[in-house]
Structures are given as C-alpha cells and as structure tokens.
Amino acid sequence: MMHLAAAIVAVAASTFAAGPRIASPILGALREAPLTIKGNGFGGPGPGTSLIIRIGEQRSTIPSTSDSILHWEDTKIVLAVDAAARSGALRVRTPQGTSPPAIVEVYHYEWFDIPPTPNTNALPLSIAVDDDSQVWINQEFHREFQHFDPRTGVVQGLAIPRPPDPGPFASTIFRDHRTQTSVLGEDVIVDPQGKVWFTQGGGYLYSGEHPNHSRIVRYDPEAPPGQEWRVYNMPGDWNEIIGLAWDARRGRMWVAQGGLEAGPKIASFDPERIPFDNHFDFSRPLLHQICEEGQPTDDCYRVYRLPERSLQPAHLLVDRRGLVWYTAFWGNRIGVLDPDTGRVIEYPLPPAIGLGDPVWLVGSGPWQIVESATGDIVFNEYFDSTIGSFNVSRLLDPACRSLDAQGRNPCIREWVVPDADLRDQTVHSIAFDGRGRLWFTQDATKETATDASLGFITADGRHVVRLPSLGHFPANAVNASTGIAIDRSTGDIYFCEFQRKRLGRLRLME
C-alpha cells in the first residue's frame, strides 16, 4: 500500500508540474502597452487555452485566439492592455491545467513637457517631491531649475541666480574658459522646512588655467519676492560637487566633492552660519572658509578627505544614527564616515558585469544611495544594472572590507534587473515608496534603440518587477529615464525623461 500511495503522489506531482506556470507571482503593466507574461507550459493557441482575468469580483476569460493576444507560445504570452485596464489577477489555462494566479498591477503613465526657454536645455536629471506634493527638477547644465505643480499640470522654469560674467565654472568643453554653464552636479533635495536644495557642479575633469568652482543653491518657495534664493559658493578649485544630504541631527548640509583633480572629499556646513553670495565674482578661491585644524566648525566648511581610491564620491545619505554614507562612483565601492571621529570605512563591490564603456576602467559605478525601513543601506550600480543592499548590522565586521574567494562582498546582497542589456542600459536612480518597494529607473543610451523602463523590487526582496518599455509611447526623442521620486501622500511616482525633455508620472490603477 505504501508503494501504491507513493506512485499516486508521483503521478499527481508530474501532472501538476506539466501544467502552466507563470514565472513571477507579480507582473507590472502599463495602460496601452503590451504586457509580456513569461513562464512555461503555456502550449500554443487553440481550443482549451485562455487567460483568466479577475478584477475585484469580476471574472473574464480571454481565449488564446482573441485579438487581444498578440503572441502566444510555450514560454511567453503577450497581451494588449487597453486604456481602461485596472489591476487584478491573472491565470493561464491550458488542457493540462490552470496556473497559480499572478497579481497584475496596472499603471497609468502621464507626461508633462518642460517648456523651452532661452535659459534652459530642458534635460531633466534629478527630482524631488516635497510634503505638499510639489515637484522640483534639476536639469543638465543647470541653466534653469524647474517646478511642477500637480494641481495645474504645468512645469515652470525658475531662473537660477547668475554671477557676473564669465561665471563660476570652467570647462575644456567650452575651449578652456569660464562659463555660466555647469557640467556636473546632479542632486536635488527638500529639507524638513520645505526649502529646496540643488547642486551646480564644476567642470568635469577640468585642469586648465581658470579656477573652477561649484555652487550649492537653495530655493525657498515661501520666501518673499527677491529673497527666494541663496547661493553657497564652495571653497577651493576643481571641487566638482554632485550629491547633497541634509543632517537634521546637526543642522548641517553635507556635500560630496568628486575632486578627480583635487582629490575626493566630503564637506559639511551650517547654512545659517556660512555666508552666501548670489552674485559672487569668483576672483578668489574662498579657501579661508575651510575650517583649520582644531577650529570650531560652526562658521566654516568642515572638510573630510576620503581615501584616494574613493574616486568620484557621488551621492550621500545621512542615516538614522548620523553616519554619512557615500557612493564612490569611479571607485567601485561604498563608504561611511563617522563625523564625530572622522573615521572612514569602505566596502568594495564585486567586479563589474557591465559591458559598455567605461566599465573596464571605473567598475560598476555605484551612484545613488538610500536607507531602507530596516536601516540597511541600498544603492544602485549604474553600469551594472544592479541594485545592492548593505547589511548595516555588519557595519564593523572586518569581513565586509574585502571580497571573498568568490569575488563577492559577504555583507552585500545584489539584484540584477531582469533582461537588462548590460552594454546599453543602466540603472540611473532609486527611491522607496510607502509600501517598502524600491523603485528604479532603467536608462538607455541615446545612440541605441534599447528601451528604457521603470521597475521595483518587492518589499520582501524576493522579486524584481520591470514595467513595459516607455518606447511604446511615441515622442520626438528616444526614451531615457533618469531621476525618480515618490509622493508619499498620493503614491504617485515621478521620474525624468531626459532625452524627451519631460516629466513622467505613474499612478496605480486599482
């Protein structure tokens, strides 16, 4: 009897395994874009094969021969999603059985053009959302700063204060001279008081005759007319700043100084004690504003030099304990600074898997960095289409400071974006939503037709979901998604479409 029971179980198991299986228990869809369902055992189109859709209490069946089915094969089904679709669940039915259900989340995609003006190239890079659902956009070259009001649906350009010619920045791109056009700097944040901060970086890889300054700009939307702007001019030449982070515990702003010419540094300052000058003429390097050894740091820039291998510190995070984390974009590592002691610890990343230039030289390109609800440190590896998470409970573990025999960091977990083109696609930006999901933008190169998209890692870390390509929505340029931010009050997901010069918004259709 025991042998007979075992045989019955074996037959039942083989029969169940022969039925259709959907590869992921959660699928992401866009209205008016095809949804690809991957798995196995789907068979081919014909009698007895269909999709079973359930939305709320409503249930419908779509035969495999329906016009809504754009493609059906054993491992892949492509379904047309209409303009009125809502989120629900989906099963695949074949003569061999019915698959377990997969949740289908349907998103509606909208876009808002950045109007052209004489002072903008309208190439949006980074984005932030404040507590009033107002959206703030920092653009490439920083000729203008943008504000989007979702109540009106209008993007408005704000002219950034400009010093007297020839300007604060120096660049070999413009024949080795000073210019008003910044060629680095890519961050925008909103502090707890609702003030908006962004960076204007100095010339990238510049080492010519002209001093090269970076600027940190503050915009206060509640200030009286004429008092909205403050410009903090970073002391020193060739400081090449990118990332910002507000330190609520200390009341200080932190800034990453890339410094491929002057060396990698992180600096902090008290914006209420440091002088600002919206029209500074840059005739002097402001070195007197850098704190000297043993000097109180209230009214000067406190500068911390990082290890030389931390090339191009990019984005910053002040965690819940007051530690300052950074990504070393050209150093293939992340690091942490304890401001109270000045101690820096670095954690190397595995060898790069990206196939495009300049990966062979710089590595995986860790870029943005955020803190999870558990306190773990999450970052994206730009060139590798990879997202990593550092286990903060192992902060002082010596094993985290080197790679193991398999070339991995034992304290870092990594997710590679599904179906990523490792030559022409990059993960540009990341942001957590209110449900603990980590959203990312998958960027693409201008020279290729490779599709850009968005996606998320589920809160439990078990699944990476990638939405359909933005290329399904025609525009006057190739699709490329860069900065991303989440409105915590509405759940709306905002992102920058760099080449298309517009702002995108995703809303879940429940």
Radius of gyration: 25 Å
Total of helices: 2
N- to C-terminal distance: 51 Å
Gross geometry:
globular
CATH class of the largest domain: Mainly Beta
Second rung of CATH, namely the architecture of the largest domain:
7 Propeller
Task: Give your account of this protein's structure.
This protein has two domains: 22-107, Immunoglobulins (Immunoglobulin-like, Sandwich), CATH 2.60.40.10; 112-508, YVTN repeat-like/Quinoprotein amine dehydrogenase (Methylamine Dehydrogenase, Chain H, 7 Propeller), CATH 2.130.10.10. The protein is mainly beta and 510 residues long. A hairpin with a 5-residue loop joins strand 15 (169-171) and strand 16. The protein starts with a helix and ends with a strand. Helices cover 4% and strands 41% of the residues. It has two helices and 39 strands. The strands form nine sheets. Strands 2, 4, 5, 8, 9, 10, 37, 38 and 39 form a nine-stranded mixed β-sheet that branches. Strands 1-3-7-6 form a four-stranded antiparallel β-sheet, with no helix packed on it. Strands 11-12-13-14 form a four-stranded antiparallel β-sheet, with no helix packed on it.
